[in-house]
């Protein structure tokens, strides 16, 4: 007897799905074969890499200044919270002492029983002494009432302090989350910049780094910055500035030439742009704010044509970069992670304003 096989059923839908997938794959393969790109990143010229990296550095610096501001606010919130907690603890300690005193009075009253004053007088062996004691007890009752009032007031104060501490804690938590966001933005942009630079040869990277301010050394640029009215003969030389504090800040900036750029750093061995400015004026005994957008309001605004050594010069519309003017159109600044603290012309970035620290 011949074997009969049951014919296999094939759905039209299954055939259509397989056909569509085959066509899609073939189309993708054809497109890749013709355009030759696929998922590979397009080749960039060194100039294009530099443009992209510069943009990433500028965006990272914007985030860095926001990070610096958020960190300053976080530290202030931490100090306020600690002060509230300390004050609350002191008031709680005094409250416990007053509660203990009230507890002692209450225990004494319980032990003395509930005899009426008239009966106690009648039963007393020495009525005169009892009357003196009763007067003392009345005065003690007044003091007890005052203690109760203080306890109630202390309780209200402690509750207010705890409420304020809860507000500060919420603010602190928000600031810490903001710090994390800015840090993630900064590290992400710097990592992308590093990946782009890694596609260049060592020689190309060195050339791009030098192009930021030319190939002159800091000493050579300082010499060229020496105008007749500036007195900038070399790094650390006396500076004709508006006042001695500005001259001291310029000298400090020169002494840090070659120091690495590290975002969030304020010295003494590494700096970001606003960190260098803050450290320079701190060395001169002047306390400046931490961020560029606060530093621009830390003195008197001056026009570009009126710049003198020691003035703070700011760049970009968001006031995200700052340097210390040293004369003859030059500044000392901390540029970005690919370049150390150096002397550079102020016209290499979009000028946004200047401030004279007074």
Briefly characterize the structure:
Helix content is about 60%, strand content about 10%.
Q: What would you say this structure looks like, in words?
A:
This protein is of the alpha+beta class and 358 residues long. The protein folds into two domains: 46-198, Helix Hairpins, CATH 1.10.287; 213-356, endopeptidase fold (from Nostoc punctiforme). It contains nine helices and six strands; from the N terminus they run αααααααααββββββ. The protein has helices at residues 12-35, 46-112, 117-123, 127-198, 202-211, 218-224, 244-255, 273-283, 292-295; strands spanning 300-301, 312-315, 321-327, 330-333, 342-345, 351-356. A six-stranded antiparallel β-sheet has the order 1-6-2-3-4-5. Helix 3 (117-123) crosses helix 4 (127-198) and helix 7 crosses helix 8. The longest helix is centred in the middle third of the chain and has 72 residues, at 127-198. It is elongated and about 85 Å long. The relative contact order is 0.11.
Roughly what fraction of the amino acids lie in strands?
5-15%
Oligomeric organization of the protein chains? single chain
Radius of gyration: 38 Å
Main sheet strand line-up: 1-6-2-3-4-5
State the helix count: 9
């Amino acid at each position: 007897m011949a074997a009969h096989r049951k014919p296999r059923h094939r759905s039209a839908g299954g055939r259509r799905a397989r056909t569509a997938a085959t066509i899609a794959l073939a189309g993708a393969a054809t497109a890749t074969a013709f355009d030759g790109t696929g998922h590979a990143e397009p080749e960039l010229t060194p100039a294009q890499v530099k443009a992209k990296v510069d943009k990433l550095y500028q965006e990272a610096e914007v985030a860095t200044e926001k990070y610096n501001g958020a960190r300053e606010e976080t530290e202030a919130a931490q100090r306020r919270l600690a002060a509230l907690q300390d004050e609350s603890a002191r008031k709680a300690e005094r409250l416990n002492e007053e509660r203990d005193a009230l507890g002692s009075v209450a225990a004494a009253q319980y032990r003395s029983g509930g005899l009426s004053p008239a009966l106690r007088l009648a039963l007393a062996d020495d009525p005169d002494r009892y009357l003196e004691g009763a007067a003392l007890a009345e005065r003690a009752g007044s003091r007890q009432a005052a203690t109760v009032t203080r306890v109630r007031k202390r309780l209200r104060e402690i509750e207010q302090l705890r409420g304020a501490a809860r507000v500060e804690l919420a603010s602190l938590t928000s600031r810490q989350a903001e710090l994390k966001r800015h840090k993630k933005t900064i590290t992400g942009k710097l990592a992308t910049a590093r990946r782009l630079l890694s596609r260049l040869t060592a020689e190309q990277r060195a050339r791009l780094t030098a192009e930021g301010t030319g190939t002159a050394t800091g000493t050579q640029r300082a010499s060229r910055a020496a105008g007749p009215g500036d007195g900038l003969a070399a790094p650390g030389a006396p500076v004709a500035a508006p006042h001695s504090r500005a001259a001291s800040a310029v000298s400090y900036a020169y002494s840090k030439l070659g120091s690495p750029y590290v975002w969030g750093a304020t010295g003494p061995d590494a700096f970001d742009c606003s960190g260098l400015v803050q450290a320079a004026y701190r060395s001169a005994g002047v306390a400046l704010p931490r961020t560029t957008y606060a530093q621009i309001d830390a003195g008197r605004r001056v026009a570009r044509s009126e710049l003198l050594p020691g003035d703070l010069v700011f760049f970009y519309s968001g006031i995200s970069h700052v340097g210390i003017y040293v004369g003859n159109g030059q500044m000392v600044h901390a540029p970005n992670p690919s370049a150390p603290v150096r002397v550079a012309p102020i016209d290499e970035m979009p000028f946004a304003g200047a401030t004279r620290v007074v």
